[in-house]
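To assess whether the prediction recovers the assembly geometry, we first specified each molecular entity separately, as shown.
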Amino acid sequence: MADILGAEVDEEGFLVNLSDWTKEIAESMAKDDDIELSEEHWDVINFLRNYFEEYQIAPAVRVLTKAIGKQFGKEKGNSKYLYSLFPYGPGKQGCRFAGLPKPTGCI
Amino acid sequence: MATKKFMYLNRKASYGTVYAIESLEVVLIAAAFEQDVSLAFIDDGVYQIIEGQNTDSIGMKNFSKTYHALGDYDINKLYVSAESLEERGLTEDDLMPLVYEDEDDDWAEKPSVKVVSNAELSKIMSDQDVCLSF
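The predicted structure of the complete assembly is given in tokenized form:
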């Protein structure tokens, strides 16, 4: 089984145990995808983690987009902005960095 | 894609069987297809949205928090059978205060849960294109 900094991940690179997550793991996953995490990335990652904590699910992209726009300003509430941060998809890649399972309904 | 009216009937309690969590997962997936979705809670299904659930002693994930996310997914028609509540000694006050934000009314928070009689519920059901029972 593969691991990142000693934390077990599944075949798609998602953490197996959510409690293993650390900021360093997120940074290491990002580096493997050639991304350096900026403050804007962390805004989304922290949002995803808080959402999961509150609702026990990762939000669908449509829900994420709407909520980011509401919290961080309209210019950020669109998929173009979110995809510029997470080119492999804000749901799939963002949730992976945030240590969450793949969003429900995400293929 | 034409919009169809989907109703998900929930008849079993949250834990002990997989029906409740499976229904919730299907509802959330279906929501991505922007259909007209409503939920009904009948028989022991009313226990799914009861306030103050605690799963510590059964070692299962407490997914009751997820019902609070339904509003974000534009699912805001949750019908609860009045008879089923009464048979179990419950009232509307025992249920989670689930709400949604009405986009057309300056994002005002409005209740999603509506307690209806079985007669009303059957009328609502006959108005659906698809009913899925869990």
